[in-house]
Amino acid sequence: MNSSFGYIYVFIIVCSIGCTRTSNETKSKTLVNSNISEDVDSSSGSDSLDVIKFIKDFALDRADTFIVGDVNGDRKVDKAIIEPATFIYRYGKVDSQYVNISFTTDIPVIRHYNGFHGLITNVGDLDGNKTDELIYYPDWFIGNMASIYIYGLRDGEWKLFADGSQRRDIIFETKDPFKYLQSRVEKIDNSSFKLTEITMNENAEFIDSTSIVFIH
Description:
By secondary structure, this protein is an alpha+beta fold. It has one domain (60-214). The protein contains 4 helices and 12 strands. The longest helix is centred in the N-terminal third of the chain and has 32 residues, at 2-33.
């Protein structure tokens, strides 16, 4: 009698554990797949759980909308939407991550890898083709060091003109982060502009460093 009771008790425990694990795997797969481009066995491994935590902690399923002026020269105000982050899986592991930046008018999408949310604003027509360039600061999971990216619309698609380093805390300590980002770019002529980034000098101090970027 005691032996039979023991078998039943063990069976209940095994069943309970198995059912709970199956339920968690199904839930994980559903959540991850909502922000995933290419899924190879996303329900296995710690990467899936990490992504679920990132999506929750950093609200990576959120879309942000910004007014960016008249980007394409049609005399209408354009809005840019930084869409929810997407994670690319290969062989059950997170391979990379990107966000799409779409627009409310007929403007191609910017696909930016390794970053999410952030700020985007207009820096004017740097190359004289009657479409405005954009500066994008993407957020990241850790650290104060960040980057800015200058995108230009050429021949119907976005090109990365330049990128530079910045500090996240400085961007958000300014009175107007958008004006601060715009101040990092200064047009010289239709083939070049100045880009100011934050670098570290020989005394381990953060300083502004300006370089000239030539547009090709």
